[in-house]
Amino acid sequence: MKIAFFVARFPVLSEPFILNQIVGAIQRGHEVDIYSLDGAPKDLSKVHPLVEQYQLLERTFYAPTRPENELWRWLKGLILLAINCYKNPLVCLQLLNTSRYLSQAKSLKLLYRAIPFLNKKSYDIIHCQFSTLGVFGVWFRQLGLIEGKLISTFRGADISKFLPKWGDRVYQEVFQETDFFLANCEFFKNKAVALGCDSDKIHVHGSGIDCSKFAYKPRFFPTDGKVKIATTGRLVEKKGIEYAIAAVAQIAQTYPNIEYYIIGDGELKADLEQLITGLNAERAIKLLGWKQQKEIVEILDTCHIFLAPSVTGADGNQDAPVNTLKEAMAMGLPVISTLHGGIPELVEDGVSGFLVPERDIEAIATKLEFLIEHSEVWQSMGKTGRAQVEAKYDMDKLNDELIEIYQQVLDSKLPQHSLTDRSLLLTANH
C-alpha cells in the first residue's frame, strides 16, 4: 500500500507512538510519506534513533511554517500564493474562503497546510494521526488535493482539550466524511461516539511499545534501604508531577532514604524546581531533564516504584493509557497512577499497581508508604503489569493489526460494522 501520515510536526520526541506506526508500515513493505502540516520542528538536533535509521526526514514533506505575527503571516502567505497559484489557481482561491472554512481560512492555516498538496497527491490510505488533522484531511480530499481512504485517530488532546474551544459539533463533518476512525483507548472512543461518531466506524487501537527494549526484572527491597522512585514525562500540567513531588516530600520525612527521579523537560521545569526547593526536598527529589530512551531504561532498571500522576488540565486536556507507564510496567515496576482518562484500562487497581483520585497528594503518599512497607507485593504487581502490557500494547502485534485495518478499509465494500468485527477478531487472535 501507499500510505500518507498526517502529523502536526515531525519528528517530535514526545510522540514515539506515531513514529512506531510509521516504522511499522515501512518494515512491512509499504510505501510511506509523512506530511508535517505545521512545518519543521525548531530543533532537529535531538531525534529518535529510528528517524535516522529509516531516513524518515527524506520521506517527510513540510508545509511552510506559519509566522505567529499576523502581518508577517499575511506577507508570507501572499508570497506563497504568488509562487504556487499556477499549480492550482481555483483551489488557491478556495483556501481563502472564510465563509466556508471560517477561522482556518482567516488565520491562513488552511493555506499554509495545503501548499504541499497543490500538485495533487494520491494514496491508498491517508492516516491523520490526530483528528484535528482529520478536519484538514477531509477538506483536502473535498478540494481534490489528495485522494485515498481517510482514517483519523483520536489520541487525547483532540477529543478533550480541543472541544471546549471549538464546541461539541466541531467534528460533525469529519464524522460524515472520514472512512474509518481509531481511538487509542475505550475512554476516547466513547467520547467520540457521544459526540456523534458512528460506533460501527470506530475501533480501539492502542499505542504500542517495543517490549523487547524494556526488559522485565523482578523488584526486591534494596539491601541499602534506598527505595528509588521514578516518573517519566513532559513537565506539563496534565502530567500532575507537582502532586507527586508534594507526596514524595511528605513521605521523605518518615523515610529519608527514598530518592525520586523525574525524567523529562517542559514548560513547568522552573515551577517544579521552585516547588522542590520550597519543600526542602532537594536531597530526595531530582529533576534529571530530557534523556534518550536508552538512558531512561538504565535509570528505570535501578528503580523500585513508578509514579504517573496524570490530571485533567485546566483546558480539559486528558491522557490515554500513558506510554511511559506501559514502559515502566513492562520492566516490572509496581506503579501508582490516577483515575484519569484511559489509564484505568492499563493499570488494574490493586493488581498491577494502584489508582488514586487526581490531585490527591494524601492518596499518593498513602500508596507510596504502603509499597515501601510491603515490598513483598512488588514482584506480583510487576509480573502482572508486564503480562498486561505484552497482551494489549505490544508494538509488533499492534502494527500487524494496523496494517490489517488499512487493508480492510481499502478493500471494504462491506458495512462498517463488519470491518470493526474483523478487527476485533484480529486482536483476539494476537
Task: Characterize the structure shown.
The chain has 430 residues and is of the alpha/beta class. Helices cover 43% and strands 15% of the residues. It contains 18 helices and 13 strands. The protein has helices spanning 16-27, 49-53, 70-84, 89-94, 98-106, 109-114, 131-142, 162-166, 172-177, 186-195, 241-252, 269-278, 293-301, 323-330, 361-373, 378-393, 395-411, 416-429; strands spanning 2-7, 31-36, 60-62, 121-128, 146-154, 180-183, 202-204, 228-232, 259-263, 285-289, 305-308, 335-338, 353-356. A 7-stranded parallel β-sheet has the order 3-2-1-4-5-6-7, sandwiched between helices. Helix 7 links the parallel strand 4 (121-128) and strand 5 (146-154). Helix 1 (16-27) crosses helix 17 (395-411), helix 14 (323-330) packs across helix 16 and helix 17 packs antiparallel against helix 18 (416-429). The radius of gyration is 23 Å and the shape is globular. The model is unreliable at 414-430 (pLDDT under 50).
Which keywords apply here?
430 residues; 18 helices; alpha/beta; seven-stranded parallel β-sheet; disordered C terminus; Glyco_trans_1; 43% helix; glycosyltransferase activity; Glyco_trans_4-like_N; six-stranded parallel β-sheet; globular; 13 strands
